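Bug report (template v2)

What were you trying to do?
Predict the complex of my protein with magnesium ion.

What happened?
Run completed; filing so the output is reviewed.

Input:
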Amino acid sequence: MAARVAPSQSTQRTRHAPEPNSHLGSVLDTLREPESLGLPSGDGKLKQPVRAVGFDLDDTLCVYMPVAHQARQQILKQYVVPRVNLPLETVEQHYRTAFKSILEELHDERWYPLYLREGHPTRTETFRRMLHSLNLPDEALAEQISREYAALREQMLHLHEEALEVLHALRGRYPLFVITNGPAYEQRRELQTLGIEDLFDIIAIEGEVGIGKPHKPIFEFVQRQLGVPPEQILFVGNSWEHDVRGALGVGWQAAWINRDNLPHPHPDSPVPVLTNLRQLLERL
Ligand SMILES: [Mg+2]
């Protein structure tokens, strides 16, 4: 799996310290069993006027985590399970452990510059460590699995069913932008594969900007280009910690998309909660 991280200024960590981040944080969230609390949509209102609208990409506009999980399972089942003669779930546990170990090192000098360019080195290292812990040290196999997993994930990647309709409805009414964490190569390619790159006036990718959400510089990078007061910019994302908190941190408005009824981290917050992007059209 591509490892995606942004350092956290709010926790006063250095750029090279291991820390949670929007993408890897989201990945780790999917490794847990989410509790469904059946929360209603938030009744927070947007303050008018809104003069620009932006979106997170993975699991906001497109289905990413479920696809990544499915692609990984398929690849592990095909290449690893028969070699180690262990159940897929056991192999998956080894993967998770390897993934967490890479996550802890991702902002080290060794990995972060590579990671900003493309996800292949950290993805391959994750599989290498997984194979090693399964007593199957095989560099060539790690390389092969990494490439095939990335290719399969790309092949399976798709937009949420309402995303295109909503983007087209907003386009022309507002400048549109996307802010996505992750490597330059993978995130740019995702936008192209999904066929939505041309729908945005501004695209901010962690790998291209050099820093990711929730840190201010990537939001400010967009704001400078928009030339719109911060309180008139709306950002929509599925990560409370990185999308919502990040946007609020620079004085923007935010909406949280919570398609899976995850527990609300701040139930008293006035930030609107959406269960699909169509609800955004009713609020603008
Ligand atoms: Mg996301």
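What did the reviewer find?
The beta strands are 52-55, 62-63, 158-159, 176-180, 202-205, 233-237, 253-257, 273-274. The chain has two domains: 22-63+158-283, 65-156.
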